[in-house]
UniProtKB/TrEMBL annotation:
Keywords: DNA-binding, Transcription, Transcription regulation
Membrane-spanning parts: none
Gene3D superfamilies in the record: 3.40.50.1360, Winged helix-like DNA-binding domain superfamily/Winged helix DNA-binding domain
Keyword DNA-binding: yes
Any Pfam family the entry gives: Sugar-bind
Location of the Sugar-binding domain: 62-313
PANTHER family listed in its UniProt record: TRANSCRIPTIONAL REGULATOR LSRR (PTHR34294:SF1), TRANSCRIPTIONAL REGULATOR-RELATED (PTHR34294)
Species for this entry: Nakamurella flava
Keyword Transmembrane: no
Name assigned to this protein: Sugar-binding transcriptional regulator
Family the entry assigns: Belongs to the SorC transcriptional regulatory family.
Record-level Gene Ontology MF annotations: carbohydrate binding; DNA binding
Length: 322
């Protein structure tokens, strides 16, 4: 094509009609009294010569490179990584999770919900323009002694209110004084019925905790383990916890007193749920996340850049026999 000033003006006019006025290529051709194929060539030339300059503004706030690395290197079915300033991480990760859920929820499903601060952030970001005929069930007992953490009761009720759904509580504490107490409550239909519903869940929403810090570690402290029991627990080298169930760096359950006193879904039950969505923020959650992924405890990971990078670093370094 020629490069005269008149041609440049013609390219600019074609581009304006197509990109700004929203005309189809045929409508542009009619306006310029030419053919549609010639309009296509003109638009291509306009971009090549800089008459048209396209600027893409990425407003998703996601780190696609890290998401790809997590799925390809660790075998996750999906990964969502928020790329935002540290001060905005909680809400951004919550928004990613809420969007993911609303894209997948439909009538007739059962959603199982655990607890945790980042999961609470996600629940707070859920908005729906209709009611859903879904059941929301609580996966683990209430955290009555850990006042700083949102309880499963709170999250189940809040999510149900936002979705217009119905829900079922697990009316029991998360930790009991004796394993016999757990067995006794599990014999109650009001308890066993909820946990059976959890096993039938289509999607589980779980927070992933660190074994060495935060409310998850406080949970162990709250158990009042003897020195010998605590030593046995620490010797098992826990990496993290989901639903108050601790696991090692390969995602294998840590059995013993700390496990026997917990009332809630087991890791084996969790692994059988078709889609388990895990959410967490911060590099300190890396060990817990890596163990959960290695053990097949979560299928989808929603996190921030710090957590994603830390998980990949641990994995690539082969930490704890990866």
């Amino acid at each position: 094509m020629a490069t005269s000033g008149r041609d440049e003006d013609r390219l600019a006019r074609a581009a304006r009609l197509y990109f700004i006025d929203g005309l189809s290529q045929q409508e542009v051709a009619d306006a310029l009294k030419t053919t549609r194929s010639n309009v296509s060539r003109m638009l291509t030339a306009a971009k090549e010569r800089g008459v048209v300059q396209i600027r893409i503004v990425d407003t998703s706030g996601r780190d696609v490179k890290l998401e790809t690395a997590l799925t390809e290197e660790l075998g996750l079915s999906e990964a969502l990584v928020a790329r935002v300033p540290p001060s905005a991480v909680g809400r951004a990760v919550g928004q990613l999770g809420a969007t993911w859920l609303m894209d997948r929820i439909h009538d007739g499903q059962t959603l199982a919900v655990s607890w945790g601060q980042t999961l609470q952030n996600m629940v707070w970001e859920v908005t729906a323009d209709q009611s859903y005929d879904v059941e929301i069930v609580q996966m683990v007992g209430g955290l009555s002694h850990l006042d700083t953490s949102p309880t499963g009761h709170e999250l189940v009720r809040e999510l149900a209110a936002r979705l217009g759904a119905h829900y079922r509580y697990l009316h029991a504490p998360v930790v009991l004084d004796r394993p016999e107490g757990v067995a006794a409550l599990m014999a109650e239909r009001s308890i066993s019925g909820v946990l059976e519903a959890v096993k039938r869940a289509d999607i589980a929403l779980v927070g992933v905790g660190s074994a060495v810090s935060g409310s998850t570690r406080g949970l162990v402290d709250d158990m009042g383990l003897t020195a010998a029991q605590r030593a046995a627990f620490d010797a098992a080298d826990p990496a993290g916890a989901i639903c108050a169930r601790f696991y090692d760096w390969q995602g294998r359950p840590i059995h013993g007193t700390a496990n026997d006193r917990v009332l809630g879904v087991t890791l084996e039950d969790l692994r059988a749920i078709p889609t388990v969505f895990g959410i967490a923020t911060g590099a300190q959650k890396a060990a817990g996340l890596l163990g959960a992924i290695r053990g097949g405890l979560i299928d989808v990971l929603c996190c921030d850049v710090a957590a994603a990078r830390a998980v990949l670093e641990l994995h690539r370094g082969g930490n704890r026999s990866g």
